[in-house]
Design goal:
alpha/beta, 8 strands, 2,3-Dihydroxybiphenyl 1,2-Dioxygenase, domain 1, about 140 residues
Length: about 140
């Protein structure tokens, strides 16, 4: 359904470092179509297919702000990747918004962790078919 998401940043270098850290864990790399003020991550083996995640300074020149109630959820193939995503996000300057674990409100096999990036955007990393026995 979605082709890409773009979010604004107030500190481009800091945001690139944060997203390099968390998106690399999930197997995404920085795509070559980026400039000094625009970066995009996605599947480098298939850049024209799938989904891309982009950051840049705001176009209107006003400070970037995080949306209240806005959340970007990224898929992970395992609970281990969710934990690595969360740890990488914290090490890269993110803020904990929910430690890795199941959230029974979404079902017994919904394993997720939440972080805020350095600009305050909220991210989730989710393994939607978690099996404690396989973990």
């Amino acid at each position: 359904m979605l082709a890409y998401i773009t979010i604004g940043t107030n500190d481009f270098k800091r945001s690139v470092e944060f997203y390099d850290a968390v998106l690399t864990v999930l197997g995404y790399s920085r795509l070559p179509a980026w400039t000094e003020s625009w970066v995009m991550w996605g599947d480098e083996n298939n850049p024209d297919e799938g989904f891309s995640f982009c950051i840049c300074p705001t176009f209107d020149g006003h400070p970037a702000t995080a949306g209240n109630g806005t959340l970007f959820a990224l898929k992970a193939d395992s609970a281990e990747l969710v934990r690595r995503f969360h740890a990488a996000g914290l090490l890269a300057g993110g803020v904990n918004e929910g430690a890795p674990g199941t959230r029974t409100a979404y079902g017994p096999d919904f394993y997720v962790a939440y972080v805020r990036d350095p600009d305050g955007h909220k991210l989730a990393c989710v393994c939607q078919h978690y099996s404690p026995e396989a973990d």
